[in-house]
Amino acid sequence: MATLDYVDVPSYATRIVSEPPAEKKNPQPPPKIVTSLPPQDDSVSSPANPMTPTGRSTFGNLPAMLLASTLQLPAGAAPGNPRNSTQLLSTRDPLSVPIMTVNFRRFIAKIGPMFWLQDRIEEILMWRKGWKVTAMWMAVYAFLCYFPRLLLLVPHAIILAVLIVGHPSRRPDASSDPTVLLPPPKANAREGSTEWLANIQGVQNLMGAVSDGHDTVFPLVPHLTYSTPYTQHIFILTIITFIIALPLLPLVPLRPLFLAVGLLPFVLTHPFSQRTLPAVIDALPIRRLYTWVARITDDDRLKDYHWRSQLREVELFENERWNTATDAQSGSWSKTFLKTGERVAWTRGRDGWSGVTSDGSGDVSSNLTFALEPGWAFVETEDWRADIEGQWSAVGADKDGWVYTNDAWLDPHSAPLDDWKTAGGLTRRRRWTRRIYLHRSP
């Protein structure tokens, strides 16, 4: 301690001891923020394998990091715009393998009631519960069509139906004491249980049904995206029908219309309709209508010089033979199975031989080597079309235009016979047509 020699300090004074200098404090590190996965139920997650971020290593997060770095997804809206402050459901969470795994397991455990409702609707619609149950629901729908304001009471009816079905008096094991409450239902299906596996099966079949529906509808999409020449016709037809239907809307009776539209699926799914409709549809001239529409479309594409020239139609026959692999039902059709010395894969004449001269100049190897007489040319706006009507055959043809014959190309039928498949001698042929015009050189 330093002394003060130049100051007279009284004997009764007490010297104040100064505090030692404060130590220099080191700056604290920034707080570490740890994020966790979305919460999951105990019944879904396994205690043996807890999904906590603290137990994961760097290699455990490697798939998520690779996925996030590879897929550059669009970012959300700018936070300054109040209209877009709420994120869309599809972009609420980032793409992550752990989140996807957890959500998938939660979805499988909770989707059971949706598949139960789907099965009940299919049973009613397909008459699986008997005609009385389906007829009752048809009567309910007709009643709602006659009194549409009753739709406002549908939520009340649903709640009452759930309460009545789950009433304790309908359970034989329930207690008669009104103070005893029933246990709540299970929120999730236990992983690995029969119900959980049934949910996975339902998801599997639902994905297949959605894919099949997409494949069925997608061929019509190019007609609406200006990818085919039919888009302009559809656009014009839609405008014309819209203008025609607009003044007729007040004359349309909505109640009978919705009644007929709602009851039509029940009529189509009835077992009697399922047995008779295929025969009725086959009897309809659908193939003739298709051929007629195709010819109108081809005529619309013809150029002016085509109309001023002479038009004719040439025909070509496609021949194939059935080859039995292991049994009569597992064979296949091909032109390579034709025998040596019989008709070739493509012929001009219906009998397989006419139209070929002695020097073989009339023979063809495909529809691309079809030679024409001098001065004639194919119509450029058309292509070869299969004759799906089969009017050249007295017995008709199948839906693709094939006429089936025996091993000797005799006894034609519109469908193959099982006896011919068993014997290994089964053939078929199909007619192709295309128009030609007399080309006048300038």
Automatic annotation (TrEMBL):
Residues 1-55 are annotated as: Disordered. GO terms for cellular component: peroxisomal membrane. The keyword Transport does not apply. It comes from Dentipellis fragilis. Its main location: membrane. It is found in: Membrane. GO terms for biological process: peroxisome organization. InterPro entries: Peroxisomal_Membrane_PEX28-32 (IPR052816), TECPR1-like_DysF (IPR010482). The chain crosses the membrane at residues 135-165, 230-249, 256-273. Keywords: Membrane, Transmembrane, Transmembrane helix. The lineage of its organism: Eukaryota, Fungi, Dikarya, Basidiomycota, Agaricomycotina. It is a multi-pass membrane protein. The keyword Cell wall biogenesis/degradation does not apply. This is TECPR1-like DysF domain-containing protein. Residues 42-55 have a biased composition (Polar residues). Residues 94-434 form the TECPR1-like DysF domain.
